[in-house]
Amino acid sequence: MIINNTDNNTDNTFSGFIAIVGRPNVGKSTLLNLFLGSHLSITSPKPQTTRQQIQGIITQDKTQLIFVDTPGLHRDSKKKLNQYMNQAASKALIDVDVVLFLVEVLKFTDEDEAVLKKLKSVDAPVFLVINKIDTVKDKEKILPYILKMQALFNFTEIMPISAEKGLQCEALKNQIIKHIPPGPFYYPKEAKTNRSPGFHVSEMIREQVMLQLGDELPYATTVSVDTWEDKEKIINIGATIWVERDSQKAIAIGEGGERIKRIGTIARRSIEAFVEKPIFLQLWVKTKENWSDDNKSLEHLGYYHFD
Ligand SMILES: Nc1nc2c(ncn2[C@@H]2O[C@H](COP(=O)(O)OP(=O)(O)OP(=O)(O)O)[C@@H](O)[C@H]2O)c(=O)[nH]1
Ligand SMILES: [Mg+2]
User: Fold this and answer.
1) What is d(CA 221, CA 75) in angstroms, rounded to the nearest whole number?
2) Does the CA dihedral 74-79-85-90 come out positive or negative?
3) Cα within 13 Å of Cα(209), Cβ side
4) Which ligand is nearest to the CA of 130?
5) For residue 11, what pLDDT band results from cuts at 50, 70 and 90?
6) pLDDT value, residue 305
7) Atom 10 in ligand 1: which residue has the minimum CA distance?
8) Bridge partners of 227?
9) Confidence at 8, pLDDT banded by 50, 70, 90
10) How far, in Å, is the centroid of ligand 1 from the Cα of 25?
11) Does the pLDDT value for residue 112 go beyond 80?
12) Does residue 132 carry a pLDDT above 90?
């Protein structure tokens, strides 16, 4: 039997993976969202917001671009969760077609340097993407920074952008497309992400946790979606916010349940926009001691190991 495996090639399709890497807080998820035109990956002003790889898929005519958002590569990797995050980011560099190395304009920290070191052994073309240029009033300051960065590595492209304002992002996308090889689509044309709706819902709740729970507590917190009941006019969703100690539980709930209510109200709005249906969201706060440093708990809470 002859297996016709060339259908897509006769269609002249192109497809490829683009890894977005960098230290925490440089704007990786903001860039993914800009490309996708939706708030697919959660963002916050706090570092280490993203914890897992998230693919955002765009299919335009005969080209499929799969952007891979990654956790920020960071030094503090004592806990199992942090090790997991760094591993998830590093794995995204294998078998990709383009790497976008994001930095924040005028900055180059030890963590940026550690990321660059990793990139030196990557086969794919590496673009240096200098983000947040909207924060520099005197644009002449950017040129010496570019020259300094250029001396560090043989970048395929150097692109100053603002992911938040959308500056130069279309130009960046056009440069990326030039490096996408011929090949069949990996996902159906309509696909937007590799993640389940439940995953995105848990992330939208965690986004509010990141934004509303002080500086330390978000790092001791994760979210699981436990029930999902799709009715004719409404979806009933039950989710748990997990903390590591009972004292943290009280803070997350707030006086008279005020804080958890606020988290739920704002998260519900983003979830409704995402599922395009009214939802009823029930939230619980529970303690699972030391979950972020325990492999079994991590796996149970959706942080699957790679090996
Ligand atoms: N002014 C400005 N702020 C930006 C820009 N891009 C992102 N930000 C902000 O920078 C912060 C971090 O953005 P994220 O997209 O969450 O950063 P990240 O690299 O995904 O961070 P981690 O997931 O923690 O690794 C947020 O407050 C964004 O609004 C930009 O182009 N200009
Ligand atoms: Mg992120």
Assistant:
1) 20
2) positive
3) 31
4) 1
5) confident
6) 67
7) 27
8) 238
9) very low
10) 5
11) yes
12) yes
Separation of 57 CA from ligand 2 center, angstroms?
Answer: 16
Residues 14-26, mean pLDDT to the nearest whole number: 98
pLDDT of 82 reads 96
The domains found in the chain, sorted by start residue, are 7-177 (3.40.50.300), 197-300 (3.30.300.20)
Does residue 2 surpass a pLDDT of 80? no
Cα 192 to Cα 18: distance, rounded to the nearest angstrom: 15
Q: Are 18 and 65 in contact (CB under 8 A)?
A: yes
- pLDDT at residue 59 is higher than 80: yes
Nearest ligand (C-alpha, residue 25): 1
Q: Both tokens of residue 100? A: 């976008």
Sheet holding 98-104, edge to edge: 54-60, 63-69, 14-21, 98-104, 126-131, 157-160
HEC readout, the chain: CCCCCCHHHHCCCEEEEEEEECCCCCCHHHHHHHHHCCCCCCCCCCCCCCCCCEEEEEEECCEEEEEEECCCCCCCCCCHHHHHHHHHHHHCCCCCCEEEEEEECCCCCHHHHHHHHHHCCCCCCEEEEEECHHHCCCHHHHHHHHHHHHCCCCCCEEEECECCCCECHHHHHHHHHCCCCECCCCCCCCCCECCCHHHHHHHHHHHHHHHHCCCCHHHHCEEEEEEEEECCCCEEEEEEEEECCHHHHHHHHCHHHHHHHHHHHHHHHHHHHHHCCCEEEEEEEEECCCHHHCHHHHHHCCCCCCC
Angle formed at CA 105 by CA 104 and CA 110, multiple of 5 degrees: 55
Amino acid at 94: I
Task: Ligand 1 pocket test: pick from 41, 164, 203 the residue with the most ligand atoms within 8 Å of its Cβ.
Answer: 164
